[in-house]
Amino acid sequence: MLQDCLAGVRVLDLSQYLPGPFATKCLADLGADVIKIEPPAGDPMRSLGGQDPDGLSPLYKMVNRGKSVLFLNLKQDQDKQTFRSLIENADVLIESYRPGVLDRLGFDRETLQQLNPRLIHGALSGFGQTGPYRLRAGHDITYLSVAGMLGVSGTHDSPVMPFPPVADHASALYTAMTVSAALVRQQRSGKGAHLDLSICESALSFCSSALTQGLRGGLDREGDLLNGGVAYYRAYRCADGRFMALGAIEPKFWEAFCTAAGKPQWIARQNDPIPQTQLIGELTEEIASKPLSHWENILHPQDCCFEPVHTLRETLDHPQNQARGFIHRSGDPQAPIAEVTYPCLADGQPPAPPRPHRDISTAEALASWT
Asked: Is 224 among the residues known to form the active site?
């Protein structure tokens, strides 16, 4: 079972908002014992985006599931001593402060190593611990800008902001993956680690292909195979205002689409020069002449990489999602929650249902870890 993978691993979560908490949520899903340290006023995510009747935002509950939450003021000596005791018994510390903040609180790298030489310290920040942007403020949209992703996404008229946030989630997954790798080394050698992770660079790591094209003359929005430059890989508006997605990259899929659409003359034009402005215009006009239901009826029986662009409600009830069972619904009927559990079947078994976070006392935290 997935929840056995990291059983016995102790993780201190000193992060807030989305990237760090999502990373530690993944570790908790895999069985780690996560204690999340929040300031007395709590993680600002508790109220971001609106509050349920219980006073918490749904996003906070989702990214902090399975954790124990302890409130500490790390500017006060007594709470600092509690934190030291937890550090001494932790396997992993993940924090998302700007560089230098943890040092000023009295927990610089040397101090942490003295307290626990085996500690894996994951420092997740916007731009990393070094460089001229190390202290610069940012959020997903600005990280994507520096990484180059926003400059090549969207339409000729404007970049399009992706949702959910790409850089935030990418950095969370890199953090969880790198910490897991460091845990393997820790178990083999007893060595700890200091991991300098960047939200911006997590997005940058997706951009090698685009950067290479930048070296070779540039890349415009709607100027490449995967960013809207070809007719066979785009989203199109139908007559009823709904949208459909076409991803017919392979010739056999494109041929199946053209044949079903009654346009065999398009088959030989798949490799028209990019951007395929004329061909895109012809598909746009044809697809806009009929409702989505028409395209579903003629394209779903074909093997051509077609899907409707689903609404969120349709996604919740989609037969594939229903069959796989990773969407878990819970909560008050007036404030329902839809969570996606860890997306893996381990030995054919689904992950355990999500467990809500719980606030704990200092005494409980110390008793459980010492």
From this structure: no
